[in-house]
Structure formats: structure tokens, C-alpha cells
Amino acid sequence: MLYLASTSPRRKELLQQIGLEFECLAIDVDESVVKQESPQRYVARLSKIKADAGLELCDHLPEAIVIAADTTVVIEEQIIGKPQNLEQALIIWRSLSGKKHTVLTGVTIASHDKEHTQVVSTDVYFRELSEQEMTDYWHTGEAQDKAGGYGIQGKGTLFVEKIVGSYSNVVGLPLTETALLLRGFGVSV
In sequence order, what E strands does the chain have? Predict the structure, then answer.
């Protein structure tokens, strides 16, 4: 049986899109960045911690396979978190406006016997943003609880000039890489 160590509606929709049947596990982990930790190491570590937490909940299920992921936005090697208010969102969007940033996702697939992690990177180019449209976007409610304060699958797509890499990675789970990792656990997609 497959389990998603997340209650993210975006990750759930992505896995359903490729026909997987799974159950969601509500997990709670510390997402603090460790001092001098690279963004790549950060997302890999968090996806492993989430997978381990998920496996712990499935301790009584020897056949359990857990999918876990962590996504972050990075600009100039700095991890950009989730904005807590309009002021934080504006600071983030001003730093992304007219520039390229990178979306990193660490994906871990784990069973009680083995664990594999991969980090996927996608470059996202924002067009120049006006103060008014950034403020208007905040008021849509879409920016809350999203790395970088935007959802490419929603109205946030209007900020994006182009992407280089996996679209589903920017949404929150790189599907091609996840499917390939799952094959290593005997799950066909």
C-alpha cells in the first residue's frame, strides 16, 4: 500500500493525476534550516525526515511504501520561505520580480527495507511585477502556505514568464522522477 506523507492538496492531486491509489498521512516535522545547510541538502533532509515520520505511522504495515517531499524556492542560494503576511510576501516577490529563481524538491520513497531520495531542480523566470498586482495577488489568498508565496497552478502563473524543467516540480512533486523512484520499489505507474 502507498502512503503520501503529506496532506498537501497539490501533491495529492498530482499523484491522482498519474493514477496512483494512496492514503495521506498527517505528519508534523520541524522544517527549520540547519546552520550552513545548502538548499539541496535542506530539501533532501526534510523529505527523508517526512518519509521516516510516515513510516513510523505505518510501523504495523510491513508492505507500506511512503512518498514524501519537500519543496522550496531558492534565489542566489538563499532559501525563500512561506510568507506569513503581506509585508513578507512583498519582500519575497520584489526579490523574484524580473529574475530567475530555482524551485527545488527533495523526493524520498521509503519502505521498511530501503529508502531512495532525489532532488529535482526547475528554473522559474518571473516577469517584472508591479506593487499593485503583488498586493492584489496576496488578497486572493493563494500565496499563503506556499514556498516563494505563489502557486504556479493558480493565479500565480501570471507572474511566470517561463520555466526550464519540471512543471509538476514547481507545483510540489516532480512526477517523472517520483514515478521512476517508485519503480525501484516495484510500483508501476
Answer: 2-4, 23-24, 65-75, 78-80, 100-110, 115-126, 160-164
